[in-house]
Amino acid sequence: MFSPFFRRFLFFVLSSKILEALYAEESPAMHHPNHLQDVFVKEEYHFLNVPGIGTITVYDTFDCTFECLSNPSCLSLNLAAAKGADRQLWCELLTSNKDINPDEFKENKTSHHFALKGRFRPTSCVEHGQQGAYKDGIYKIYDNDGNSFPAYCDLKSEPGIAWTLVMSWSKKNRCISAFRSTPFHVNAPENENSPNGDRYRLSLERMRSLQVHSTHWRATCSYPTHGIDFTDYLRGNFKDFNIVDFLGNDECKKVEYVDIRGLNGTNLTAPFWANFELGLHTDSSIDFCELNATVGAVSSEDNFGFYNDINPKFRCTQADNSTTQWWFGAHLKK
């Protein structure tokens, strides 16, 4: 067991390393921790209700925060607000924080919550999933420059995969250029700080940042209403088809799975278009690639984008409030 003096010395060393990384991007001046608030954010009378690393008993706040700093997996902690009969506090170390599980952060009368600054800076919804987040919703993620922004995460619809929403629009907004005539590699943000299903597109910078941390992409129809049942659904691998940088017409590109009006297939090619007049989309009325979804198609039927010629039997274009989503994602590591 470390002596109190040596524990405080180690606390200073550990917290200095954290703060050096944390403040390097904010200030050129060296910053040294003088108080706990330099390293932890304290939320009085709050509790994060998530599985923990373990619960120990300590004599004071310093001992609890020292244990968290000493454990690389610790992102935050719950600490008893008052000592028990043995004059000790219970201290629960956590591998999560309120940014990962915001719905589990609650007020209470018996504990305080301390979140470690700067240790966890997720770059996609995948990293939130790796840290134990499991509820769909809006989370904070960081771009390649270290700037944070809100993003919608789908963590449940496909077990073992986490998805970040990059674009969504309704049929009634299909004529807006960002959704109709702009390929992914052109910067055309729409409400990028307010994720929604009706009119939303990330900037190119944020898309590229997410792409670096993603292996797959997918397109869905009316996700807020239907979730994922793999009807009118498209998924591919960036390794096979880089949709962000694609420009072309009538090109057969490999996809992992596609379903259009119930006609589907796996590991086959489908025809794609994207240029400076057409947003990325496929056309189910033709069959020169391996996909054949011509049965029930309308002439020049557009699917998953562009929507010049639409079919009311295709879920993305059934009604004015029908929506189309594009997502980037990856498998969670076991």
TrEMBL record:
Q: Which UniProt keywords apply?
A: Calcium, Disulfide bond, Lectin, Metal-binding, Signal
Protein name per UniProt: Apple domain-containing protein
Keyword Nuclease annotated: no
Q: Where is the signal peptide?
A: 1-24
Entries under PANTHER family matching the protein: APPLE DOMAIN-CONTAINING PROTEIN, INTELECTIN
- From what organism does this protein derive? Porites lobata
Keyword Cytoplasm applies = no
